[in-house]
Amino acid sequence: MFSKLFNRKKKEAVYDELPRTANANWAFLGADMHSHFIPGIDDGAKTIADSLALLRAMAAMGYKTIITTPHVMVDYYPNNTRTIQEGLAAVQAAAKENNIDLTIRAAAEYYIDESFMKLLETEPLLTIYQKEVLVEFSMMYEPPMLFDVIFKMQSAGYKPIIAHPERYLFFHKDFKRYRDLKDKGCMLQLNMLSLTGYYGKNVKMIADELLAKGLYDYCGSDMHHEKHAAALAGMTNTKEYDRFIGYPFLNPRLVNG
Ligand SMILES: [Fe+2]
């Protein structure tokens, strides 16, 4: 029990050291549309204290609206609309009680596999905006049914947003695959920290190129923990920050969406 208390104290102390940006430099984006703030249901926030600390950091960076997106991945994070909505209600209540000035909504980050195919046929999906749905897949190998799933989603009226396309290693050697995704009607979401080299040099190179070619539609923090929060706050002091200001990300339309 003592060690539990000690660990909790230690964790809170780390969060207390998070940079607090006084000038709210990410305010121009208005909304973040990819994060893991619902405690205990995926690999993001573990406790409600974690959620509150991360939400405070987002508010301090100038965000107004958060659409948090727990993983839906059958073997690891078997979430569904009920687990997500219940978790969201708890986070909203805690944020209100703690005077955190954010509008918090929830969608999901769906992992493309066989069970997602079934889900698509049986249940309505949680959406980011209108019929836009955030999806991810294995970083290591291309799912054989990727384009079938994209087609099925579209037939059901959804528009796929591919999470962090720069992180899928098997696309790196063939840049035109990114154009294929766009041509097939997918939207692309940049993980903001990819531009800093946080996920490695190759991921940064691809993110640089996708941004330079105007292929991204949204950007997202994909925030899981305090290291991500500190890195995102610190990014506003780097040269990469200017590249966001000039780019027409669709995030602001989510503020009232
Ligand atoms: Fe994510």
Q: Which homologous superfamily in CATH is the superfamily?
A: Metal-dependent hydrolases
| CATH top-level class | Alpha Beta
The largest pleated sheet is described as:
6 strands, parallel
Rg over CA atoms, rounded to whole Å, is: 18 Å
Helical content band? 25-40%
Output the number of helix runs. 9
Low-confidence stretches: 1-18
Kindly report how far apart the N and C termini lie: 45 Å
Which distinct ligands sit in these coordinates? fe (ii) ion
Number of domains: 1
Mean pLDDT: 91
Looking at the chains present, what oligomeric state does this protein adopt?
Answer: single chain
Give me the secondary-structure topology.
Blueprint: H1 2-16, E1 31-32, H2 48-60, E2 65-68, E3 71-72, H3 81-97, E4 103-106, E5 109-111, H4 114-122, E6 132-136, H5 146-155, E7 159-163, H6 176-183, E8 187-191, H7 201-212, E9 218-220, H8 226-235, H9 240-245
Parallel strand pairs: 1-2, 2-4, 3-5, 5-6, 6-7, 7-8, 8-9
Helix pairs in contact: 1-2, 2-3, 2-8
Bound molecules: fe (ii) ion (FE2).
The site of fe (ii) ion (FE2) has 5 residues, from loops.
Could you please describe the fold and organization of this structure?
The structure is a single chain. By secondary structure, the chain is α/β, with parallel strands linked by helices. The chain has one domain (25-254): TIM Barrel (Alpha-Beta Barrel). It is built from 9 helices and 9 strands. The longest helix is centred in the middle third of the chain and has 17 residues, at 81-97. Fe (ii) ion (FE2) binds at residues 34, 36, 109, 163, 222. Fe (ii) ion (FE2) binds next to loops.
